[in-house]
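Ticket #4471: structure output looks truncated?

Reporter: J.K.
Steps to reproduce: submitted the chain below (312 residues) through the standard prediction queue, then opened the result file.
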Amino acid sequence: MQPRSRRPLRALRAAASVFAAAVIATSAPALAAEDDAHGAAAPRSAPALAAEDDAHGAAAPPVPLRVATYNIHAGAGTDQVFDLDRTAEAVRGLRADVIGLQEVDVHWGARSDFADEARALAEKLDMRVFFAPIYDLDPATPGAERRRYGVAVLSRHPIVAAENHEITRLSTQTSEPVPAPAPGFAEVTVNVRGAHTHVYVTHLDYRADPSIRAAQVDDMLAVLAEDRGPKILVGDFNAEPAAPELAPLWRHLRDAAPGAGATYPAAGPLKRIDLVTVSPDITVTGAATVATEASDHRPVVTDLKLRGRGGS
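Returned output as attached by the reporter:
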């Protein structure tokens, strides 16, 4: 394995950052009105959010939040048929407030009808969306949209800040890839009734060799260490919780759904590789793996309680 770059992990490739910043979307006037009511129309920096939180010293009741993770397989089910309406129905059935999605196509190719899946799902579900591309490639034909693939966050609550971080990756787009920093580790700050919460979405390397996943875990933890407040990390980890490469996670986070059941493959799950993890200041009140064949993975949904704004 090649030495990893020491480039700052929070730096973004120019093309990825321009696109990612542009796709925090509100899909209905009612959501825009809610943003106005929360005063969250413009993203604010993490230090500003922390200072605002510190200004509220009074205790507050816990705030419920339902969070899910779902690898949508680019909109194709176990039958390998692309059907984004079916995907949307599976997501809607989770009744989640925030959902982390993996394997999201945006004008990627024929397999998903060149659809902008991130925006289309947000519109179908009346949710806000932030898309963080892993790959950002030239169009298939001159004048067409750029081909992008990555992860996304859907949220019923206002997204007040968002970033597409780099972590170590081994590209699937070259014949002889070497480990290198690449984008596609999404972070959003969500305003949940005044409680600002960091939500991160990841998709770790699928190869049998765990070394890339180990590097990715280190990189993600470095990003998380820069943020204050409650943290929720979800995604397709391509490894079960007991895998050695995931061990460093459990010194900082905990598995929110240890008894929820296997997630992959969807038709007859054998492995639990789709995880919701939370910081110690978040209470877990319920969790389930949901049976559906709208993808080759099953989604995981968790019920959480956040400390109310001003809680110690």
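Triage note (M.O.): checked the attachment and the full token line is present. The first helix runs from residue 14 to 22.
Status: closed, working as intended.
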